[in-house]
Write a structure and sequence with these properties.
- With 169 residues, this protein is α+β, with helices and mostly antiparallel strands.
- The chain folds into 2 domains: 7-59; 68-168, Alpha-Beta Plaits, CATH 3.30.70.
- The protein has helices at residues 51-54, 82-100, 139-155, and strands at residues 7-10, 13-20, 24-30, 40-48, 57-59, 68-77, 115-120, 125-134.
- It has a 5-stranded antiparallel β-sheet with strand order 4-3-2-1-5, with no helix packed on it. Strands 6-8-7 form a 3-stranded antiparallel β-sheet, with helices on one face.
- The longest helix is centred in the middle third of the chain and has 19 residues, at 82-100.
- The termini are far apart.
- It is found in: Membrane.
- It comes from Marixanthomonas spongiae.
- Pfam families: MS_channel_2nd.
- Keywords: Membrane, Transmembrane, Transmembrane helix.
- One of its GO terms (molecular function) is mechanosensitive monoatomic ion channel activity.
Length: 169
Amino acid sequence: MYLVGDRIQIKGFRGDVVEISYLDTSILECSGDYLGNDRRSGRVIRFPNSLILKEEVTNYSGPQMPFIRNETPLQIAYTSDLKFVENCLLEAEQKDFKEQYPYLTTHKNDEWEPMVYFRINTYAWMEAVVSYPVEPTDTTGRRNRILKYALPKLNEAPGKVQFPEGTLR
């Protein structure tokens, strides 16, 4: 089920519910054909309520769980100091979390804890991925804030972390 204000996905359409009538539901599309992020596209999608009986509905928000998990990957060299990278990314995530959700910083919940993991990307680079909780409507904003906090600290330590440069990216 969903309510006005929830971010849902149904039959390939994703957006924020703005109106529910007896016959149909209207959502403000997010993502979509022309966007590579989760921002609203400006398009309104209207579908008949009978569709919810035939299709799977994913509700990304709601009172049961205010957050979804999001990830931000960074390409780094295999020779980077992985502990340093992990600490920088976690510090950036925590700084943003405390600023965005000051009322939650004293209420620890294991499901909301951020984590950093590493995965192989190419022969020359790997990815450091920070995974964190975010409100469904703030995924792009939170990703950008975390990068703005983390990148200066990572760039200040070229001996500990190297990034792809030039045509090697």
